[in-house]
Structures are given as structure tokens and as C-alpha cells.
Amino acid sequence: MNSHYLTSSRTNPVFYLFRQTFSENFDWQNxxxxxxxxxxxxxxxxxxxxxxxxxxxxKRFPEYREQSESFNSEEQALWLELWEKHxxxxxxxxxxxxxxxxxxxxxxxxxxxxxxxxIEDIKECFEDLNFSKKERKKKKKTSKKFAEKTEEESFLGxxxxxxxxxxKEQLRLLGLPTSFGSQGKQNLKKLRNLTDSSSNSEDEDxxxxxxxxxxxxxxxxxxxxxKKNQRKLNKVKILAAKMPEFMxxxxxxxxxxxxxxxFSLFSRFDQGIQLDRESWxxxxxEKIARQTSRRxxxxxxxxxxxxxxxxxIQFANTCGRVIAIDIDAKKLAMAKHNASIYGVSHKxxxxxxxxxxxxxxxxxxxxxxxxxxxxxxxxxxxxxTFDIEQNLLPVGASHLMKLSRxxxxxxxxFLPRNSNMTQVIALSGPGQQCExxxxxxxxxxxxxTAYYGxxxxxxx
Length: 460
Ligand code: ADP
Description:
Blueprint: E1 4-9, E2 15-23, H1 33-60, H2 62-67, H3 73-112, H4 119-129, H5 133-154, H6 165-173, H7 183-195, H8 201-220, H9 227-242, H10 252-260, H11 262-265, H12 277-282, H13 286-295, E3 300-303, H14 310-318, E4 321-326, H15 329-341, E5 348-352, H16 355-361, E6 368-371, H17 397-407, E7 411-416, H18 421-426, E8 433-441, E9 444-452
Helix pairs in contact: 1-3, 8-9, 13-14
The structure holds adenosine-5'-diphosphate (ADP).
């Protein structure tokens, strides 16, 4: 029996997590993913649905709150009808987004268990080959259309709820605007944001993604850059110029991606957050760090590889005291500075040490040890499954677990998204269970967090 849980936060990027208990005899073959999806949806909608509906309703119709007292009965009926449509539209929209996330979760899990293609999958491919040319063309066209629509819909924003004819009529009757955030307006907003130094990371993300596809196009249509694309390229240049000096090198394009995400790494980035080059790749995005800190709330926690402080800062909000360890004194100094920006440095003790030695020598007995060791830079993504015994630094996962268990039986382990799940489960020890949260930002998996130890793993 396994437990499933899904939650999100309402602001961009939307954060979802799937929580699941695993043991060594986890039976992948009989794992009912459809049931996971259903349960996850029910739990999520029960927990967050109502708040989501209200939040988006008031954002869309700010006048409703102010004027609701003075509505006559006809207006009340119209508003009610509008509310029902709003509920239906949003439920369908979130169902769709979560279906995409669930499907990704399924694929990601399958991959991390090293699941081979089944006979059924192969049969399906052969069936595909048996289509006549005409049928194949038709099928391709439909699936392309569907894929485009799916992609479009999965990134729908607050203002992009499509209005049907009746709804427009109803809005007109209520004297409300009938177009919300038209494409034109959004593009304008996007451009305005981009020229503004405190621009929102999400809009910039769109731009870099569009720009990447523009660059791919250049390989095919050499020499032709439309005015529109040229403008976009210029904007990217402007953005690149705002990056810190050490990030500007021959890999400019690669680093821009990280720069775009600065506000999802630290929401207070523009208050003076300090990060060195390595930390841009490795710091935990704030929403994930916040979730982990809620999960690991306790009196005393050790953050064994604190880096620039992404996790330690969040732990300081939920734990009595945080011991933040790092082998690199410069990173530790940055972590201290960053913690002061969040007003929590007084709750963290920064220790300059090698965790491998610290764990052997210390008499400290924290409630929980949190491990977020080096993954070896962004190259971890190139492997289909990440071997946590061979590729983690400075030592394999089992060794790190053994050291940590000298301090506490409860351990949280932040691992690459493509980690070998069989190895992740094996760390629980014989006959024991672990709980794994797969962390998604929008519909993409960013990382996974595994929890070990009685009292930390939630009982089924
Ligand atoms: P990644 O490989 O994921 O980019 P980093 O190289 O940034 O991760 O490593 C995470 C942090 O762990 C860094 O701040 C690094 O200084 C620290 N670190 C590495 N080895 C040790 C160690 N033995 N003890 C404590 N901290 C360490």
C-alpha cells in the first residue's frame, strides 16, 4: 500500500509535488498509476481547489468584492451563472495541467526505475506502422494539433481563460470588460517587464525559450532574421549585459537560462543575494526549499552541504536552530549574507568544515540531518539515470547515509531528478521504507527529496 499526495502553490512558477512511500519490495509491475492520478487529484482539489477558485475569481473580478452588497436579483443571478462557469473552466484547466504533471511523473518514475519498454509498447509501434499512408498522415496531424494545444494549455496563465459567447454577453450586461489580457496586451507587458530591471523571471523565461527556437531556425534559414526576432535577440543581449561579470563568458547563452530563474531561486534576489558561479547551478529553488523546511520542521537540524544557503534560510523559518556546514569558506560567507537578507542569520550557526570529518568527530545530536551534496554540476542531466553511489560527491550515497545516521536516525536527502530509484529505496535499509517527494516546477521535474527514518517517513 502506498500513499500519494499532490500539492501546489498558486504563484508562478507553480510548484507541485507527488509524495509516495516506497519499500524494497515495491512492485512496479502492479503499480496502478491511474489510481495515483485519481487520488492525487482528489487530495489536491480538496486541499487547494476552493482557495484557487476564490483567488482567481477575485483577481479576475476585483469589483465583485466591493459591489456584491448592492447587486439586484437579476445581477445576482448573472454573477452566480458566471461563478459556475468560472468553477467549471478552472476545474477543467487544473485537471488538464495536473494530468500533464501526472503523466510526466509516471514517465519520470518509469525512467528512474530503469523500466524497459514492454511488449505492449512495441506492439503499439508495429500497429502504427500498419496504418496506410493516408491514415498515418491524418493521425500525425491530429496528434500534432493535440500536442500543440496541450503545450499551450498547460502554460495557461491567470488571464487566459477563454470566454465563450454567452459569457461575453453576460459580462457586457454586468458592464464588465469582455477581454482579459489579450495577446497584444500581454506582449506589451512582457516587453515592458523586460526593459525593467526588476522584471519577472517567468516572462523572461518565455523570451529565452522563444529565442532558443529562433536560434534553431537560423541553422535552417541562414542569413534571414526577421525584425521581430532581431528585436528579441537584442532584448536577450540587454538581459545578458545585466548578468554579473563572472557569468558572462563563451557560455553566455547557457548562463542566461540560470539568470532568468534568479527570482525562483531567491524571491529576494534583487535585495542583494550573493551567489558564486557554481551555486547558480546547485542552489535549491526557494519553493522547493520552503516545502522541504516545512516537512523537516524540528528543534535542531544540520544542513550538511549548505552552499549559498538556499535550504538553511528556509530551515531557519521552521526549525528552532540550524547548523549550516560547508567546506568552502567563501560560500559560507555568502550564505550568512543571504540569511541576513531574509532576516534569519541569528538562527543559523555557520560551521566551516568537511562534513565527512565533522560527522565522525562531533558530539552534536540533531533531530534531523539534511543532505544536499554536490551532484557534479549540470552534467548530471546528461545521464539517463544518475547512479547515486558512483556519481555523488564527495562520496557515494550509502557512505553519506551511514555518517549521517551516526548523528540522527532521521535524514532528508535532496537528489537529482534522474536518480536511480532502486538505489534511493535501498538507502532505507532492509525492511524499511522511505518517502520520496518528486518536486515539479510547472510540469517539469526539478529534483526529488527522499526522507528516511522512523517518525519522518509518514506511516501508510
Ligand atoms: P553541485 O555539484 O550540485 O553543483 P556544489 O558543487 O555547489 O553542488 O556543492 C554543494 C555544496 O557542498 C558546495 O557549497 C560545496 O562547497 C559543499 N561541499 C562539497 N564537499 C563538501 C564536504 N565534504 N563537506 C561540506 N561541504 C561540502
